[in-house]
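Hi R.,

Here's the chain you asked about this morning:
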Amino acid sequence: MKQYIFYFLGMIIFLGTSCDQVVKVDLPPHEEQLVIHSYMNPGDSMLSVIVSHTRGALDESEEKLIDNATVELFKDGAGKKTFSFVQALDGDSWGWGGFNEFRGALYQVPNEEAFWDLSSTYELRASADGFASVSSEQELFEPIELISSEYNPEGGISPDGYERLDEILIEFQDKSGEENHYEFRVIFESEYDDENYVWIETQDARVEPTMQTAVSKDNTYDGQTVTLQLMTYPYWDEVKKLIVEVSAINQDKYAFNKSFFNYYMAEDNPFAEPVTLFTNIENGRGIFSVENSRRFVVWEE
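And here is the predicted structure, written out as tokens:
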């Protein structure tokens, strides 16, 4: 009997000590890169770029504020705009169309609508001491106009089937013969705040919710007149005006929105697979997008 007790105790000691074993993992050295986030629209009064940098997985040092970068926007390799540092962003204090999740140095320059046209290529370049220079090229797409819109209070059902949601139907004509991508935002104005971007849900298989936006591509409705469904949670005790913003975007912005949404949903989830954020920044990370947006009032008090 004693031999079994000693065997049992020995197994407990073995398992207990084996749990304390420290395994050292040699991580490859991390080379910091510039990170750029910028969405530009011809109708904006100011063009904005957020500049930050990557960090190693175990880097606990204080994040550097890159307030001395050179940030320039070129049109067809010639005419350019030079950006100036404005302020540091902490990730919570600045609600710029969803960019309130990002931190870094904000650079801006006044915009002129005449700078933009559908036949030009726009290249964003950025450089800073201690980092490789980065760049990205984009083209502008033709904006879309809504044919009609319809607002149905509590006219939709949440994807889990448990809640009544407010439904917005938008109808527009898709341009045929090319792959088009669209981004949608739902914005409400209230007596307390000027604008609020709201979370979008849908039961429409052609629409994909992505972090206070939704995206769609026309592979199933190329060249057709299409009606898409957006749904939002009811906020209407305080709402004065409901707006839908529709943007013509490219494949890069579409891919970034989807990857950022997946990253957000996987955060702090130990069972989720790692998510790699899409980037279109050469020699760096982040996203540069130029897009044509239009806003439409779908309901007003």
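One quick note: Helices lie at 2-18, 251-266.

Cheers,
M.
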